[in-house]
Design a protein that fits this description.
The structure is a single chain. This protein has one domain. The protein has 200 residues and is mainly beta. Strand 8 (126-131) and strand 9 form a beta hairpin. The chain has 2 helices and 13 strands. Strands 1, 2, 3, 4, 5, 6, 7, 8, 9, 10, 11, 12 and 13 form a 13-stranded mixed beta sheet that branches.
């Protein structure tokens, strides 16, 4: 069995704009503390329909993104059933291979898995997401002369491999994760949006 998943990504971190991780350089502050959320608009894992479910992370990256050893907390939206949660965890932890396994191999420790309310909204290029009482972020893209969002393509690292990423900034980024020892409160730092299609 495998997966076929399509949807949208929102991502924020403590780096300045643009986060050096995406081009394989060291984080601006030596470490990168990030939150990202995948909203699955359609798709299935092992035959289980996961449409409408969101998976989010609070993440501590201790150095260069490609060196791995990430520590993270995983959050599943509270509209997920037990079956959907089990299926998605199998995919995002790398058990089902594919592009999600490539990302999962960078993780050194999954500190916790919780089911919480998640709000994920994208409208006209602006994004908002809330993850329980852990993450609160508002995102907007940079735009080119035509008014279209500025794109990053062919980067050495991507959380949506195979798809262009829209470069932006987080107007606000609040993340409180005692489990990871993180307390972030920033404005106008790195943010990324994008669409994705993953298959394995």
């Amino acid at each position: 069995m495998g997966y076929r998943l399509s949807g949208k990504l929102l991502e924020v971190c403590t780096c300045e704009v643009l986060c050096p991780c995406w081009i394989g350089e060291d984080p601006d502050r030596g470490t990168c503390d990030a939150s990202l959320a995948y909203h699955f608009e359609s798709g299935d894992v092992d035959g289980v329909d996961v449409s409408g479910v969101t998976v989010a992370y609070a993440t501590h990256i201790p150095g260069n993104v490609l060196a791995g050893n990430w520590r993270l907390c995983v959050y599943i939206s509270d509209n997920a059933t037990d079956e959907q949660q089990t299926a998605l965890l199998a995919a995002v932890t790398g058990e089902r291979g594919g592009p999600l396994a490539d990302l999962a191999q960078l993780v050194g420790e999954v500190v916790s898995v919780e089911r919480v309310p998640i709000r994920f909204d994208v409208s006209e290029g602006r994004g908002t997401y809330r993850v329980g009482d852990v993450v609160d972020a508002d995102i907007e893209p940079y735009r080119g002369p035509s008014g279209e969002p500025t794109q990053l393509v062919e980067s050495v690292f991507s959380t949506i491999p195979g798809s262009p990423a829209f470069v932006g900034k987080a107007l606000t980024f609040r993340m409180r994760s005692p489990r990871l020892g993180l307390d972030v409160d920033l404005r106008d730092h790195n943010a990324i949006q994008g669409d994705f299609h993953f298959e394995a």
